[in-house]
Amino acid sequence: MTSIEELESLRWDLRQRCVDIIMAGGGGHIGGDMSVIDALMVLYKNHLNVSPEKVDDPDRDRFVLSKGHAMEAYYAVLCEQGFLDYEDVRDRFSKFGSPYIGHPNNKLAGIEMNSGSLGHGLPVAVGMALAARMDSRSYRTYAIMGDGELAEGSVWEGAMSAANYKLDNLCALVDRNRLQISGGTEDVMAQDSQEERWAAFGWNVISIPGNDVRAIDSALTLAEQTSGKPTVIILNTTKGLGSSLMENKASWHHHLPNDEEYKQISADFAAHKEAERNA
Amino acid sequence: MPNTIANRKAICDVLLERAQSDRDIVVLCSDSRGSASLTPFFETFPEQSVEVGIAEQDLVGIAAGLASCGKKVFAASPASFVTTRSYEQAKVDCAYSDTNVTLIGISGGVSYGALGMSHHSAQDIAAMSAIPNMRVYLPSDRFQTACLIDALLADEKPAYVRVGRNPVEDVYAADGCPFEMGKATTLAEGDDVAIIACGEMVAPALAAAKSLEDKGVSATVLDMYCVKPIDADAVRDAAARCKVVLTVEEHSPFGGLGSQVAQIVGESCPRLVRNLALPDAPVVTGTSKEVFAHYGLDADGIAASALELLQKAVD
């Protein structure tokens, strides 16, 4: 277990590595990376029972990054956990012939399934959770989706089946950052209230400040203790969190910072880290 | 005695038998267990069966998730739906993620007859063949279907299998079904016309070859159940020994067996190739047999096309 204090410091280092990967690769989905990276970090640090030694262990916990475009954040976390080598990822991300592409590639250690096209992860995670039950294994399955992704009908097919099969070994997380490429989610295709929607589908719903490390940690523990139904954690997040340059700006959905922006973002991360240390 | 056992039933029989000693075999249906003849499997192995309701995207996604955890998954749903509604799941979750999922397209082609184009799958060979790392199989009868399912159980790659709704004439026998995975079965050897068929078109192709023989025309007949990857050597050999090549498929004219054969023949052994297929339009209302006869996909039509093509080659 990693302490909340350590996580509150580490999250800025991971953001910096994530941005450095994006800079080296010539662009990435930086906005969604920044909103979801805290949840990814807490999940891998304190809850997912998986490690580089366990990538083929049938009892390992399963994770599916359904919002696959947050891959740079996922690389930062996979490197932190020792699945991949950070410098190798950074130097080869998006380069010719590289295995480090802009979406999950399950030929890489620690990545269970490919994604990229949205709306795929939840049904896949349902299959993984059903397999656990069939084999009487106690592993848990997690899937992280974006909020724009929730317009995909297949998400709700998966939601229906997870509740039908009472998959309490399954936990979905929604990165509710309220922005997608074209603008605000409520302007593009209104989806409030997500809490009511998931509850109506028979899920246990936990809605939290999604960039609050302690709240994420507690919510994941609550999900583990829930029986008889699947849990969804609505992560109420800020897209681009970490620098005012990119926070809540749809134009930063996919972006390559220029040199000046990069310096500003890095300075902002450092300041956040310092402030959190002194808090 | 005409055969009364549909290919879909042959699939269930194999899975029922193998599941007795293999707990990793899992069958999924989308409110389709009855039409897939898989009810006995669901009743015998409920813990190895998953019902997803009328939700084909969920069907294929769940199938891939199960397979990623070591299950040998067979997901059965009407061919018309599982190859279009869940096309992207087939592409990303099965083929791209390389999961051990066999998609069973039941009631394929024009099996649903008068139910119309929504229920026909004239596009499935082209659609599924176009996906990198997806294999496509159309077995011709119940015996070959059983051999194919056994072969698929022995590997861990994604595949699509199309079978029809109704029992079809036996091409092989219980004790005589030569089968090698990925290799066409040669049903007749002749030097005038090479007839290459798949699925339900194999039996009429063989019947056509027999009637051609009476007219002094000798035909090679290939059962190309493995449409992708196709047995290119068998195509080349058949084209090389014959004057013309005729392909027969229950499919639209584009991107199916005929297109693949024409590519191979055109590149390695140029011959006249004619592709007998369904039209590029909603098909006429009728039973499979009526539809096939209408478009010249029965034994008489195939024989007539063979003679025409041979005449054209002489001219």
UniProtKB/TrEMBL annotation, chain A:
Family annotation (Pfam families):
Transketolase_N (PF00456)
State the UniProt keywords alphabetically: Metal-binding, Thiamine pyrophosphate, Transferase
PROSITE patterns the record matches: TRANSKETOLASE_1
Which InterPro entries does the protein's record reference? Answer: THDP-binding, Transketolase_CS, Transketolase_N
Q: Where is the Transketolase N-terminal domain?
A: 15-268
Q: Which Gene Ontology molecular function entries are recorded, alphabetically? A: magnesium ion binding; transferase activity
Family designation: Belongs to the transketolase family.
Q: What is this protein called?
A: Transketolase subunit A
The species this protein was found in: Parafannyhessea umbonata
Automatic annotation (TrEMBL), chain B:
**Top-rank taxon, per record:** Bacteria
Cofactor(s) needed, names only, are: thiamine diphosphate
Gene Ontology MF terms in the entry: magnesium ion binding
Q: Which UniProt keywords apply?
A: Thiamine pyrophosphate
Query: What SUPFAM superfamilies would the database entry show?
Result: Thiamin diphosphate-binding fold (THDP-binding), TK C-terminal domain-like
> Is the keyword Manganese in the record?
no
Q: What InterPro entries does UniProt report for this protein, alphabetically?
A: PDH/Transketolase, THDP-binding, Transketo_C/PFOR_II, Transketolase-like_Pyr-bd, Transketolase_C
Q: Identify one Pfam family in the record.
A: Transket_pyr
Q: What range(s) does the Transketolase-like pyrimidine-binding domain occupy? A: 5-171
User: Which family does this protein fall into?
Assistant: Belongs to the transketolase family.
| PANTHER family the record matches | PYRUVATE DEHYDROGENASE E1 COMPONENT, TRANSKETOLASE-LIKE PYRIMIDINE-BINDING DOMAIN-CONTAINING PROTEIN
Name the UniProt record assigns to this protein: Transketolase subunit B
